Queue: 4 jobs
Job 1
Amino acid sequence: MNTPTEKNISFTPAKIKITSEMTIPKVFRRIARENKKHIAIERKTSVNTWLPVTWQQFEHEYRSLARGFIGLGIQPGDRVALMCHTSYEFSLIDFALWSIGASAIAIYETDSAEQAQWIIEDSHCRFAVVENLGMEAIVTTAQKSCPFLEKIFVLDHEALNTIASISEEIKDDEIDARIDNLKADDVATIIYTSGTTGKPKGARITHRNLLSVAMNGPLDDDLFNLITGRDKRNLIFLPMAHVFARFTNIMALYAGNTVGYTADIKNLAADMQSFKPTYILAVPRVFEKIYNAADASTGKGVKHKLFRHYVNIAIQYSKALDTPEGPSRRLRIEHRLGSKLIFSKLHTIMGNNLQGVISGGAPLGERLGHFFRGIGITLLEGYGLTETSAPCCVNRLGNIKVGSVGLAYPGCHITSDEHGELLVKGDSVFDGYHNNDEATREAFTEDGWYKTGDIGTIDDNGYVWITGRKKELIVTAGGKNVAPAVLEDRLRGHPLISQVVVVGDQKPFIAALITLDEEMLPTWLTNHNLPPMSVHEASTNPQVIAAIDRGIARANEAVSRAESIRKFTILTNDFTVANGYLTASMKVKRGKVLKDFAHTIEEKLYTK
């Protein structure tokens, strides 16, 4: 039985209580009218420049689109499937549908026809807007089993102009009447969780849910200076089908920021240099990539040793900030020298304007957190789920405990039950799973706490520390409980490693499946005087294996002997979103990996 304990509850009061009359389109209608000339968004062009879009322009465009949706016959409560990369168009469609009481149901751009079909069928979408012909083919396949899906619009074919021109005669009064009839507890969207088994569950996210997190974060005393104001610039590059990016967009626009969108994470460095964000929100894999790219770019020999030396100085400096005496004189001198020689180059890579970053979606390694803070970029680790509309806790400026996920987010209550499972209450907690009352009942305690499925502790100061997923805890044959995240987080910081899955449930020892980072491999090989080779060749190369082995030895220093990795095997294919082994937020689908690689695990790791 999941019963909240009395030991600790983390709670931060909300500055704004969401009333029944408050909805996303109503709040932003006021913002648009009061800030007509303010630049809300900058649109990326094909030559990597950014065109300003004022609130007046943005509102005009999404209301024009809203008229067209009304002309198509879309009624309040209707749903439109949206399969599209992160972009200005995604935001435009979101706001247009909200303005007429409807909602966009996002399909990940990497989803298969089967996945798209389930989402369209379960949410009963009447129309679909897709980005290109490839996505149209996927949704068209789904349409065969979903006869209620009336029409598919393709953005490649000027779909938005086509939709907007359908009913230009519709008056603003009709849009405003629909906005005024909406209530806070009406569903704003349904977000389908990327589950590891079975069909994804559709989490009903209300206007109250999203406004609670979007409006209260920017008003928090310790977050205000990072995310609030017209001088702040936020670049969104995570998939907007995911709750993290959806929340980020609404929050940044509410906070008065200028928002930019980019679809391809491979171009992130160039986009950051041209857009010059003041802060970003991202998943840990992005920060691991930035660190690994910087590490690889230093080459070999003296330069590489120098980089590694000042990485350690940055980490030591950050750790010293948490001590009563602070950094020593010697450490301060070395840190200043590192800033000139190394750290300034990293700032340039990230646009020379970055003040802070917020990490969520998966655990961030403590070493990486100290590194970024040590080079002068505040990294605030947070924690949340689809069902909590993204954040339910986050570290704060001036109140950082590296390794924790911080204090409760404004308006959230967090506690734990007798088994250590974290429980959450607040206005941000979702309305339930669409068409799945049984799953909804199972998700809550009898007295209304949402069961996160994550194991953690809350210290005496209210900071939350995540141990691991309840379902992911490994129990070895010897009865030792092992949280795989501790080892996996440390290993993903290795320049050769892309993904790690620690295994060993009911086995005599802990082992690991490793995948190589195909992008980083060529640079690593050059730096180590090795000839070019494929990932397949590298997986059996003695020097590569030895390098991974050394990385595992360092990671094992963080755990006991019984929890340490004794054996590993390198797979020849990476885990990706495209092949179904990663969720859109870059988390490994552990259950699918364990099932599909069961033979490899048994043969390579546990057969003598």
Note: The radius of gyration is 24 Å.
Job 2
Amino acid sequence: MKQQDKNRIKDRIKEKVSLLPSEPGVYQFFDVSNKIIYIGKAKDLKKRVATYFFANNDRNVKLQVMVNKICDIQHIITPSESDALLLENNMIKQYQPRYNVLLKDDKTFPWICVKNENFPKIYLTRRKQNDGSRYFGPYTSVSMVKMLIELIRQIYPIRTCRLLLTPEKIAKGNYSVCLDFHIGNCKGPCKGLQSEAEYMELVEQAVDIINGNVGSVMKLLRKRMKIASQKRNFEEAQSLKEKLNKLKQYQSKSIIVNPSINNVDVMSFILDGNTAYSNFMRVVKGSIIQSYSIEVRLGIEEDRESLLSMMMMEIKQRLNTELSNKIVVPFIPDIAFDKVTYIIPQKGDKMKLLRFSEKNVNAYRFERLKQMERIDPEKHIERILNTLQYDLNLKSMPRRIECFDNSNIQGTNPVAACVVFVNAKPSKKEYRHFNIKTVEGPDDFASMKEIVYRRYSRLLKEGAPLPQLIVIDGGKGQLNAAVQSLKKLDLLDKIPVLGLAKRLEEIYFHNDNIPLHLNKNSETLKVLMHIRDEAHRFGITFHRTKRSANFIKSELRTIKGIGEITANNLMLKFKTVSAIKQASQQELIDTVGKRAAELIRSYFNARNSKNES
């Protein structure tokens, strides 16, 4: 596109922005081919859209790229901000703009269907249709759905056949009873042995159980059991008692908090790199009757408040339900829904519910990540590397990461380790140990400076590949020492380097005094901690080996007539003092000669005699 055309488009956009109303609504950005590339909502259309063109967007490269592609703007005014959220959600799903949140589909989740028919069946389905039937769900657990349906069938004689039970066909006697009738699981509505009114009463009781209103059903069963007992109909009373016991067992599994908590929704939320997850739970009389988790891929500039609002609206639409008047949340969303009060619990039963929801969403996230890793390992690796790049604001994807750690205990045997991760996984064949050569005493900063310089001066000399990220185990002090060496090698502007302080898991950058704190569930933090812990383990192992070798050498040097060369030869051959003691005389002679072998044998014999006495 010519510069003249670009200037004309820019002027037209500025004019459109100036004419936008200061009202709630939805805005759409179009590219040069008249394709929608972004859809957003706003409390004030004019102020919100103006921020894209007149604010400083240099910090977000992806946002700036999108802004440069905008060739036209359209908007829709809505009565309220919540209406704008609903419209935005629907339009995003319809047009799937490139720079918007990507909502994951829910086609595989199961529902409970109460069929729209005479004598309706109750069954599990994965297809929600617009056929007038009642659908409950979706559920994230198939076993939960099966347990509910099995419970209903144990308590109520609901038919399972596929017969079309119209009054006309029943009157004609077209059907005959099946095995379910003979074993007591059905009362034979196909033969007119059960009225539709009686059947529908059972169906509504079953629906109450699905909705979590177990208490009202139990109350009804107790009343009928009492009447049956008074009439001395003990078989019916026993049958009702068994149904009550089944309901009690189900209720004991589902109640996790105070039963007085009624008609409350719970929304948890976790943000992991460029993906957000949320779990929705509906609580009725202390029972969780619904649990549903969703995942969204972030667009260009969503914050957690707007994401949570969008997820609430998405769940409202997917479940075809109204939100409860009280919603337990970890933080306040940016949209206020009519007649809805947000609750941020600090303790008590509502806090337990929020923690339980968080546990569910973390399990869902873990399951999604494992599923992605199994189906497409390469895509899983790309996602992790993209998350690292995004969270750490790196210019390039960190396919190769190297981490350094110093090890010394009470100032003895100072050593260091360098571990290498390629595509977020350990590359153990490339791990390296370092003996500290130029530093006297326990000086971690000077040791770090030495090993970083030695490592990268050698890589430069050999023309070996350099990492896209260097991680230093430690805080500002160790990081600054590494920075000095990188600056000396003219690599500081070429390789990003950070320090990971263990106490609070703070991430330090050399040009920023304020550390970066990532969420403890962040995948980026977990990868960095894995690298740091691996460097620490590798360094400690080498340090222990070196201390053990020095101990052996020092003990051997106490033997009169044994010099350093002889001690080194013994250590290389036998590794431990115990192995030297147990070696045969010929093995010792073959290793250090006859005279030295006699001195060693005399020393250990004398020490054994002293210990025995």
Note: The radius of gyration is 36 Å.
Job 3
Amino acid sequence: MRLIGLFAAIAALFAPLSVAAETVRSPDGRITVTLDADGEGVPFYSVERDGKPLIAKSNLGFNFTNDDPMRRNFEVAAQKTASVDTTWEQPWGERRFVTDKHNELALTFAEKDDTPRQITVRLRVFDDGIGFRYEFPEQDHFSTARIAEELTEFNIAQDGTAWWIQAGDWNRYEYLYTETPVSSVSTAHTPITFRFEDGIHMSLHEAALVDYSGMWLRRMQGTNFRAQLAPSPRGPKVVRNAPFHTPWRSIRISDGPAGLYESDLELNLNEPNKLGDVSWFTPHKYIGIWWEMHLDESSWASGEKHGATTENAIKHIDFAAEHGFRGVLIEGWNLGWDGAWFGNGREFSFTEAYPDFDIEKVAAYAKSKGVRIIGHHETGGNIDVYERQLEDAMAFYERLGIDAVKSGYVADAGGIIAPDGKGGETFVWHDGQEMARHHLKVVKEAAAHKIAMNPHEPIKATGLRRTYPNWVSREGARGAEYDAWAVPKNQPDHVPTMIWTRMLSGPMDYTSGVFSLKGRGATEPDIPSTLARQLAFYVVIYSPIQMVADLPENLVKYPRALDFTKRVPADWSETKLLQGAVGEYAVIARQDRESDAWYVGGVTDENAREVTIDLDFLYDDTEYVARMWIDGEGADGLGKDRHAMDVVERTVRKGDSLTVEMARASGFAIELVFSGE
């Protein structure tokens, strides 16, 4: 008996770790998530990492406008587990290949009464975070969900530092970020990012926002947050017929800032590509008839100052052809810009041009020069008018050879004009359920005509670019246009903050490249930036389409800077965050998808700093030429000499390092190519 007991003890020692049915761990074992119902039948989850609580017991559930809440009196009725370890390829992106490795637990909760409703919570745990969603099965007692509010909690286990922008305010997502204690956040948009005393970084967001209202986060008390869905004028914030599922609620978790930025969590929580071959989309750089309007040197509206004339378009096409830019954005070409179009859009036509713009001639001329026109659909926030013209508008662009469209929804939050279903209008939010439906409708219609979409004033990115790869970029934050006319302008810490907040959600069309560093009615100093920092944006701010925003006459004044924008790619095979701190600075390296070249960009806040870059990511036994666009003597992004810039070269190999000094509000860009190329 003693021998048998000894064998049993040895077997137990080497047996696989036994995990309770309601607990699931990440593949590396560091993250443990518990999912269960408590003594009152309230479904809840909690998250630990390395045995330490990150998310304390957090309740799950719903309130409805026409039914009892799904909140308590539940028990676990069924469970399923699964594991996935795959790699998939992006048609374009920050990296070519993405690893999806996770463990999954799905628990079905049923009410303990005579007519029990059921709901399943599906949980996926990765090494870099978790995702969970609700699934409403088809059932006799609950066919339509009219959701008043989602009761999902995020009970953060400790205080720390948070970076966030306010939700529910008039300017959508376009705010400078606030840095506060976690316990001082009010109601925030996602992604919201946290750093704790032990160095752990965490962000909360959502994935696969389809036919559902966007999630805000409302702090209840202390460090406890609850989901708050974007409002609807129709009563329920979401109306769905079963079966359906919600978006994923995502939590990225990392030891430090690098892992948080490099995570592909939301992409992995989205469905694979539904469009098939999208090789018709080419990542590219573009210029446009755009910045001059923000400077008030020309206008979107017709008249003497009209910017979108045939003559001006041909001038921009010639410039793009000469300097190798694929695209030319032309805003204000179509009827509807005269008068009060902001938050109105009732007069827009998406197929009729102003008399001084011959769109047929311009499109043909661009084609003859090897340049593509980037179309523009400003709606003034009126999706009623836009959707009625959508099919004709996309077919019109396809016939002209226009394969990328920038759209716009310029209206105050809550001011989107939608049909009320009775022949009239109602007003909805940019991130409500109807706008989630609208954006996908536009993306699908565009895909049918082999057109890529880049919406401004959009709904937030939630990884749907994986499922619909023609949804290539969007705005969704304070972009470079604010440097033209805003008070204050984008501050030096704005981009180093966005890298770990807005940029966690997906590509951003920031519209970089204002070489003049001057906005409307500029006085020196104006835009807080050095010239080298403007170049850094092409590396640190990811988008598969990148604008070089300044006026052509300003771009040619700085030929060394213009040369970099012509050289830097817009598509990558790998991305690494080499060093940085949220809101302070970042250094990012990316490898060109079409060559072996690497590019490194760095930005800093209002503090000058020196960074040393270890070149361990280069190939072994290979000599590279490092060409560096760096601050020149006396450069100061907050001073008078913001244009001082040097271009220097060094020969380097793997294992070497480069030391770069950044002035205040500055940055740098580095190109690393094989020696001899």
Note: The first strand starts at residue 23 and ends at 25.
Job 4
Amino acid sequence: MKKSKPLILIVDDNSINIDLLVNTLKSDYRLGIAKNGPKALEYADKHLPGLILLDIMMPGMNGYEVCTRLKASSKTKEIPVIFITAMTESGHKTRGFEVGALDYITKPFHAAEVKARVKTHLALKEVHDREIYIASKIQKTLLLGRPPGDIPGIQIFQLTVASQKVDGDFYDFFKFDDQCFDLMVGDVMGKGVPAALLGAAMKSHFLRVLNEQLRLSCKKELPEPAQIVSSVHSGMIDHLEDLETFVTLCYARFDMLKYIFSFVDCGHMRTIHFHDGSNRCSLLQGVNMPLGFPEKEPFRQISVHFEPGDFFVFYSDGVTESKNKDGDLYGEKRLLDFVQANGRIEPENLIKKIWNDIVAFSHSEIFDDDVTCVLVKIDKDLSLPALTTESELEITSDLKELERVRAFIRGFCAGVKDYPLDEKRISTIELAVTEITANIIKHAYQSRSGETIQINAEVLADEIAIRFYDRGEQFDQESVPQPVFDGSREGGFGLHIIAHTVDEVLYSRDEQGRNCACLKIKL
């Protein structure tokens, strides 16, 4: 197939200058013409020429402004710009280079000089593009893992579009057996080759740590995701601090035997969990800082239940931070609404439709950041052993954790399959859970920080049981005065709210010295 000639855009308001340049270049190149700045920007955005010859002195929008706008766009910033102008002062040349031009030709110009400079910069761009193309192929090998294709009942589809063809988004998969695998999705702060190299180093370190921990355990028991992330962070923190960068990450485990999805979120985008039974989505979020920040507290993992037909969507901020021409962001809500509206279509088609929606919103296929999306679908007809629906969450005694608790219980309720709960019922349960968690923090632990609260939510035959475990002071229900609603006394309102929003409340203390508060909600 014959290679087409490079496309050159000539931008000048003077017809004589345009004719001279056309006659000089027409035998070797395809040519486009724009007589003002706005037309030049429109043409460049639509046709992406290989090089632009740009006049400086034009009415309305001058060449400096045109070049600045070109370099500000992720779509056109890599196009080489050569200024052609009658202005010869060094200050004009300096400003031209400052706004992103690669070269400067003064009028009256010689045809041979124009040809030579155009040829040189096109050749340099071709070499650069070739190097980037090769680097992007290497990136895909180093940063983008291949999903396991032999796990019964699982479908995995992925999408990655790099902003500069080489970037720092990465993901990988670690299969343990036919019933368990881990997925890692990460994003290195920054762009280009340095970010890609750091992403490759992170992936390599995860694999090394995982193999080491499996060897030490003799593969009898898998290391927990939080344990893996903590070990990797300890090994990489000094390098990340030296480079003054960080990595957002979601490390997740799918346990097909127990219906459990466990994850450690380190500042990454919130994972979308689509619940097939209720046709609703919930957002899964952790509280860990990105890798590269000092580890003040142990990494915490969260476990949620899933059902056949459910799927999970992992993505980078390149998805939600894609912009349209007005500067509006695509956003998490648009993505969440789109996934929920299209949750019933085949997963391979869904991930394509997500990409098409991003492009339709942005009116572009070139973005300022990597666009990465991984979708994991549990087959609807998967035959799994019968288990109760159960999820667990562990938090510390800090009122800031209440947001996590609410998100956890909302996600759990959205996954109740046989007895779908409406929004009002979920909000009521969420209120009761918030009140009892706050009471444990304030009273059982006397507002001391750093203590642990474990929350277990379970669907039984005809009810939901939500249990709260703590090691604080034992609760004496009889010692709490009844609330007075005339404003004369504070206190007692939390218990009143709890008692009137659930069907039963039980308080106990086990042999290990743990307090247990159990809320029961009839289905």
Note: The longest helix spans residues 111-143.
